[in-house]
Amino acid sequence: MKSYIYVNTVSLDKRENHGVTFQARKELHKAVRKILAASAKILQSSFADPFSTVDVEDHECAVWLLLRKSKSADKAARLEAVREMSQTHHWHDYQYRIIAQACDPRTLIGLARSKESDLRFFLPPPPLPSLKEDSSIEEELRQLLVSLPQTELDECIQYFTSLALSESSQSLAAQKGGLWCFGGNGLPYAESFGEVPSATMETFCLEALIKHSEISTHCDKIEANGGLQLLQKLYQLHKDYPKVQRNVMRIIGNMALNEHLHSSIVRSGWVSIMAEAVKSHHIMEASHAARTLANLDRETVQEKYQDGVYVLHPQCRASQPIKADVLFIHGLMGAAFKTWRQQDSEQMLTEKALGDEDRYTTCWPKTWLASDCPALRIISVEYDTSLSDWRARCPMERKSIAFRSNELLMKLRAAGVGDRPMIWISHSMGGLLVKKMLLEASKKPEMSTVINNTRGIIFYSVPHHGSHLAEYSVNIRYLLFPSLEVKELSKDSPALKTLQDDFLEFAKDKNFQVLNFVETLPTYIGSMIKLHVVPVESADLGIGDLIPVDVNHLNICKPKKKDAFLYQRTLQFIRETLAKDLEN
User: Fold this and answer.
1) Model confidence at 189, in pLDDT bands (50, 70, 90)?
2) Average pLDDT over residues 337-354
3) DSSP string covering 222-289, please?
């Protein structure tokens, strides 16, 4: 067993090595030697052996016995040991440090995924290597990208890699002039035609690395070339820039999908970083960390959460069994978290600034639904969409609804979707993806559980029969050149009509429970455009209740407060549809 002892450095001046300080240091070293000797005897003997020959205080035995138990061949015993450790809050600092130094990676990851764990269980990450002389973070990121395979890449990886390697921040900003759409709100704000959000080279390097990290062999190269340490350095340098930190965590989460890299991720100190991040009050930060830790935890998690698939609840190891899944699929220009936030108002924004989650939530499925239905696993999905080809994060990317639905279906199946009863909840174009995913799953025998376990669907302003947005974009083509996603929403789209006809027949045959909400107010896009995105007639699927709500397209999925009709009706549908499953 290898142990590390942390003591203050000793002065070389012999005159200082006398008196109370010197004697205290000697006693400390004696105590440490005693602990190490005792631990060696306990860990090398069988679990049932008596400890009468071990010279150790009674209160110390609990620490070492838990440590032994955590390394048992019996999985139930290991899980119980981690649970007991995580619930211990009365130990001295050195006792937590003993566990931190002596536990195996499996136990460390288990503690990181335990809600009550004390952060003293986690050692600080190892010291990071210094930057090379005359180098910078930007340059080392460039070198890491250069070291990765550049052949057989899809167009998006080539695009982001090219940006990071060949362009400067200034030229990129100039190159990106024009209409900018700010993501997360469902639709862009066309307020400026010349101002561009600031971008750094690190951002473009990370975009490229995210794409590379989706390929297993590229993850091996990232690890072999010091990428884990370099990314950690970037993470620490940008503590005040959450977007950079989230992108770094996305890369680590993708690398954690490869089990042979787990030991490297643990050794580099990432578990300690994630253990702290998963306790964050910021839902996005906590969710990214939770995804990475779940991918590392092969002791209790069989599923794998690929890029863009986030578990909102439970984000830690749970004692209560999960009985059903609820899946949230955002729409055009949406996001996994911001689409599902509480509706903004002047008062709510004040409470948001104060960080009061009881009054304002940045993600109501995580805060409200998880509290009201703790036996649910709640998943939110994120994927890139664009209103305009000018805004596409990857302009080479042309993904149809059919392509995206197949891509998402594979990711969700890897996350265990289909193994439990479930409800789909979607906003806008996300509802079209849900319909397409279910139709595709019905054609594949290996996806039959997805169909058999689907209990119901909630559609928030889904344009089943098309949207005025597509027509409007065509009419002002010189400002908003419509993306492929928008073109597919036009009312005369043959693909949209076929999707509606096929799904309606399919849903009736499977007797899915359906609830439809629809906006009645127009949506303001910036200061120039006012548009009723999804009219009532388009939101009518043909089955299930259709409920008009006096809000616009952005707010149809954002309840004003927990007791608002929009949330309470949603909660009622979930409870009624899953009533039998939640009782079992």
Assistant:
1) very low
2) 69
3) HHHTTHHHHHHHHHHHTTT-HHHHHHHHHHHHHHTTSGGGHHHHHHTTHHHHHHHHTT-SSHHHHHHH
Task: Specify the pairing of strand 523-525 against strand 324-329.
Answer: unpaired
CA distance 201 to 207: 10
Is a pLDDT exceeding 90 seen at residue 56?
Answer: no
Q: Residue 552: phi, psi to the nearest 5?
A: -90, -175
Which string of DSSP letters, residue by residue, matches 101-114? HH--HHHHHHHHT-
Q: Residue ranges of the alpha helices (H) in 314-428? A: 346-353, 364, 370-372, 401-414
* Banded pLDDT at 151 (limits 50, 70, 90): confident
Q: Which residues of 531-566 are buried (b: 16+ CB within 10 A; e: fewer)?
A: bbbbbeebbbbbbbebeebebbbbbbbbbbbbebeb
Q: What is the identity of the amino acid at 347? A: Q
Look up tokens 């319909």; give the residue. Answer: 435
The pLDDT confidence band at residue 400, using thresholds 50, 70 and 90, is: confident
Spatial separation of the C-alpha atoms in residues 524 and 515, rounded to whole Å: 26
Q: Is 0.85 surpassed by the pTM of this model? A: no
Q: What is the DSSP string of 351-376?
A: HHHTT-TTT--S-HIIIIIHHH-TTE
Range 476-492 average pLDDT? 53
CA angle 347, 352, 354 (to 5 degrees): 100
The tens digit of pLDDT for each residue in 207-247 reads 889 999 999 999 999 999 999 999 999 999 999 999 999 99
Residue 403 tokens read as 């392509």
- DSSP classification of residue 482: B
In this structure, are residues 410 and 446 in contact, taking their beta carbons and an 8 Å threshold? no
